[in-house]
């Protein structure tokens, strides 16, 4: 075969290695994204002390990629006590390991107003949000949603 064949094999191996490095680097830089969206509704616009209000928080992956390592939920304001949530009675935050494009995850939170509300604390604004995501979100503007509930009646 002589020297020419060996050099061609080496040159071919070098070209293959360079292509592998370039294509591999491109795969790393072309990172997947997932547009996460939060919506939130309250079971009622008003609540009395001693009663509960239920919040439904929905996380939707608008795509195009799979969302991974997502934490979402609601840090309840001081005027509300957590009764329970679908993610446990300690926290109103959920972790979703994998959420495919087009899929949703729902968190239900049951809360009750505290008993010693001042008059200016009766209007309770409450925001749910995406706390973290391992996948890049190209549109963070839809990563939170708020509702307002009014505490009515005698305190």
Write the layout of secondary structure elements.
Blueprint: H1 2-29, E1 34-42, E2 46-48, E3 53-64, E4 67-74, E5 80-85, E6 93-99, E7 104-113, E8 123-132, E9 144-152
Parallel strand pairs: 2-9
Antiparallel strand pairs: 1-3, 3-7, 4-6, 4-8, 5-7, 8-9
Compact description:
The protein has 155 residues and is α+β, with helices and mostly antiparallel strands. It has one helix at residues 2-29, and strands spanning 34-42, 46-48, 53-64, 67-74, 80-85, 93-99, 104-113, 123-132, 144-152.
SSE arrangement, N to C: HEEEEEEEEE
Strand runs, count? 9
Which structural category do the helix and sheet elements fall into? alpha+beta
Which regions have little confidence, pLDDT < 50, spanning 5+ residues?
Answer: 25-29
Q: Report the β-strand fraction as a percent range.
A: over 45%
- Number of helical regions: 1
For the biggest sheet, the summary is: 5 strands, mixed
- In which range does the helix fraction lie? 10-25%
Radius of gyration: 25 Å
Record the strand order, biggest sheet. 2-9-8-4-6
- Which descriptor suits the 3D outline? elongated
Explain what the structure shows.
This protein is 18% helix and 48% strand. With 155 residues, it is an alpha+beta fold. The strands form two sheets. It has a five-stranded mixed sheet with strand order 2-9-8-4-6, with no helix packed on it. A four-stranded antiparallel sheet has the order 1-3-7-5, with no helix packed on it. The longest helix is centred in the N-terminal third of the chain and has 28 residues, at 2-29. The chain is elongated.
């Amino acid at each position: 075969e002589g020297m020419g064949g060996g050099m061609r094999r080496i040159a071919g191996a070098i070209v293959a290695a360079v292509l592998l490095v370039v294509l591999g680097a491109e795969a790393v830089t072309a990172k997947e994204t997932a547009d996460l969206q939060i919506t939130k509704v309250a079971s009622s616009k008003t609540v009395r002390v001693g009663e509960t209000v239920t919040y439904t928080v929905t996380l939707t992956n608008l795509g195009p990629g799979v969302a991974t390592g997502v934490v979402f939920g609601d840090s309840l304001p001081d005027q509300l006590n957590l009764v329970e949530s679908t993610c446990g009675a300690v926290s109103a935050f959920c972790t979703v390991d994998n959420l495919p494009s087009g899929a949703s995850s729902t968190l239900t939170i049951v809360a009750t107003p505290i008993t010693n509300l001042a008059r200016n604390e009766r209007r309770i604004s409450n925001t749910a949000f995406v706390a973290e995501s391992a996948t890049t979100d190209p549109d963070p503007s839809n990563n939170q949603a708020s509702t307002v509930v009014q505490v009515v009646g005698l305190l």
